[in-house]
User: Fold this.
Amino acid sequence: MEQILGVDFSGARDAGQKIWLTVCIERDGALHVKSSVPAAAQFDADSRAACLRGVRAAIERADVVGLDVPFGLPAAVHDRESWTDVVSLIAGIDDPETFRSRCVARASEVTGGDQQYLRRETDADRGALSPYHWIRAAQTYYGIREVLQPLVGEDAVAIKPLHDGPATPVCETHPAATLRDIGLPTRGYKDDTDRSRGRRKTIVEGLQMTPLSMHGIEEYLLDDVGGDAIDSLLTALAAWRASRNEFSPEGAFDPVEGHIYR
Assistant:
């Protein structure tokens, strides 16, 4: 049985409550949920540094990993020739705001001031925001600098579809893209309102029609008003689906920018 890990990632200071991990196992052609918890409960820690150490360790223990975080940058905002060079570039930047402002400045330069937030080829295809958009900049920065870069440096992971080899396969996911592919609502489920709970109920019921066994966590998913539990489950599902297709790219992508699986 393979262990599939889905991580709904965040660069927030209160990482213990914002990062969510779902662990599943594959058995008899189905994906079975084993646990779904916030990082604070998983690692008995709230600080960003402690939670990111825990995420790295959890990734190394898993057999397949889906990570809801941008793995790269639009090629237009840097002059690097490989994905690992882009990772090194981000690792050398001191903080997420400097990271964001540098990318914005470069985007403005190359577009003659017409655009600030450029998207990767895979972002445009999946309906995702720019990786350095102010909403996502900290997520991208910490995900690459503090999670992927150390693991890649230790040859502990194989970033899909960019790398082959025996290391733990890790793939980028985007919950909204997975929901859209299944035909479920992509918005309006992250709030403490009756309408949002209704959307979460629609999503949970729809996911029960996939090869996914939730083992009694349905109410748990409905009660999580932030939607992080659902997102981490979707991330695990996307990673599992990608692994069953041997991580074949789902459409065109730039190998310097990365690829979102759904």
